[in-house]
Backbone:
DNA sequence: ATTGGTGCAAATGCTTTGCATAAAG
DNA sequence: CTTTATGCAAAGCATTTGCACCAAT
């Protein structure tokens, strides 16, 4: 994988964020440093970086994918109303993979716990900007 | 919620399937009984039924949502290559909700374990019809 | 009679792609 | 010099919506 200026900055900015941004949210951030970057470059790099195991692609809780630069194992909650994602701190004494009794022929190589709920903003009832 | 012919048949056919179909897969099945039904009706009813807690909307990997008529608590695996979803039989001695130490202000009301892997067809290396 | 649901087609919105140009190794 | 990545615009595709008509209560 060739190291381009765009790729470096995308990774760098994603790692700075703890918000699990969508592609376009990250685009807005990266544009400040690379005003001529294309949204297609953002998408292509996020895809590539997740294939290479350098970032996580989060595909739950709404229609926009979200991305996470933190590769330490951890769990997420997502807000069923606005789609925001947050890390969740959990007890670490359960090995999820050991829970499987019958995988129906699937070769399982990852397992994780995910939570659903309401984010602090949506709990207040006010409409939360980021809808879905 | 008004009981229409369409709504009844959509629910009935979804409950028969163990494949966690996408909206258009279910559309193909329902069309055999209601040839004039619209895909919009499928989407509207699946959304409505999941709001009412009568079915589950699955938003894992892949771009298409999948739906499940089986409301008994259980876990899923999804194939990272073709997007197929299958039930997984698991040990039942862990209460996922008790694992939370810090929910970062989110009000959590659901938690579940989900697995990633390769389905039997994709393991064989052949290309699996249902791509994503 | 009233309200909610349906079918159709058009619109939306996130994501991907084709292609000519530019940059990396 | 060769290969891979970029920017731009256009295309793709799942899903949603506006609207006139229809059906359930």
Residues:
């Amino acid at each position: 994988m060739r190291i381009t200026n765009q790729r470096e900055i995308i990774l760098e900015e994603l790692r700075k964020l703890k918000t699990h941004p969508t592609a376009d949210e990250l685009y807005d951030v990266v544009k400040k440093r690379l005003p001529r970057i294309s949204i297609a470059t953002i998408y292509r790099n996020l895809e590539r970086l997740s294939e290479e195991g350098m970032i996580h692609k989060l595909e739950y809780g709404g229609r926009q994918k979200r991305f996470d630069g933190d590769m330490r194992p951890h769990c997420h909650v997502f807000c069923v109303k606005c789609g925001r994602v947050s890390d969740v701190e959990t007890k670490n004494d359960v090995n999820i993979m050991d829970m499987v009794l019958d995988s129906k022929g699937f070769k399982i190589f990852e397992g994780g716990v995910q939570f659903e709920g309401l984010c602090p903003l949506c709990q207040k009832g006010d409409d939360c900007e980021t809808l879905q």
In short: Residues 2-5, 22-24, 39-40, 43-44, 47, 63-65 of chain B lie near DNA strand D (CB under 10 Å from a C1').
